[in-house]
Amino acid sequence: MFRGDRDKDTICAVSTPHGVGGISVIRVSGPQTLSIVSKICPFLPEHPESHKAYFGSLKDPQSGDEIDEVLATYFKHGKSFTGEEVIEISCHGSPVICQSILQQLVFLGARPADRGEFTYRAFMNGKMDLVQAESVLSLIESQSQQAARLALRQLKGSVSHKLEDIENDMTWILAHAEVGIDFSTEGIQVVEKSAVLSRLERIEKGLEELVGTFKVGRILKDGFRVVLTGLPNVGKSSLLNLFLEDERAIVTDIPGTTRDVIHGDTSFKGVKFTFLDTAGLRESVSDLVEKIGIQKSREATGESDVVFFVFDIEQGLSSEEVTILDGLDPQRTYILANKTDRLSTLPRIEEVQEALRNSKFFQKTKDLEDFFKRRVFFVSALDKKVRSSVLEGLVKEFADLQMENTVLISNSRHLENLSRALENVLRTKGLVESGMGEEFIALELKEALIAIHETLGKRFDDQIMDRVFREFCIGK
Description:
It is built from 18 helices and twelve strands. The protein is α/β, with parallel strands linked by helices.
């Protein structure tokens, strides 16, 4: 996507969202920025001061007609987002005005920017590494407070700094291994085996910690994907509407009303939630459409982060429901005993608790009392307080992993590379323990170092660049 002499072009694009607004910002970056912009912004001085905004009339250089009153902010080479000479033109937020200014810039020699080209240039000019460049997109696309905070931490270098520490340890081992190869014929041991193993164990621990954070990092970035499942007519659609605070699903007393997967997004305490209401699970179904809906329900359940298993507490927990429950993973399952508003006495709750205790599902849990306390809710879809009480419990499960200082990865590319690096490090450790020569150790560890360099962007090719920057909008 970005090749050849295109990096030497002066580029321009609208960096604010398209449409009508109070103001729009047009960014211009490249070696000819000042000479081009000065022709339409004659109020700019010959030697403008960096990071200073200048006010004046932007004009058509051919006719002299005024196009708009603008603010032009100048950033000198090395002091801008891209690392190049940059001018940001703040104009009135009319698409007609923006298009007119862009036409003038292109006429004078600038080129329309490609997707993500400003961020790409920032990366190429050493203003940020590839992890930070990806976090720019994550920050722009963040749909919750937690996602924005995570992206900002990554932009500030939380992941990059940890990877650089790992890289330094790898480089130390490789340097001593290379020297060891040179002195191998003389029988000189350059560094103690214990010192190498100590560094490798530190590297292993660091990579394991990063790889282990991906699930939580992805949830903080993209939100929880929560599926409501259970038999027909237990109140899943009513609960969906309650959690979304919107009448998204049709609610009737007729079993099998929901045929397809219905989903909607909401936010609670800065975390995004995507709820999915699924067709009720039952074995004896003759309707082809409902059969397809049930199959989609099973697929959605398998792909979800969290499962809300819903049943009608008035009817009790049936053997069919126990069978469904036994097939679920206790680590990501919450149980919602619905329709408590229809109960007149409490013993029914105790009966349900006893039925749950005797199921195979609960035999897979380590602490029954703790599970009941944190994961079983007796609710009514008519009670609006249920939303906060259930979601509060879910958010608390991840509270310790959402600390501001926690280093998390949330990008699948990072997971792939770091998992590969971890495998190489484990093999390197095995070679050291078995007393293999330095040349074998160096060969294996170099592969791990390559994976770290690919993550940070110190080693890349066109495929990696296209994969990273093709998701960006024009102007970013």
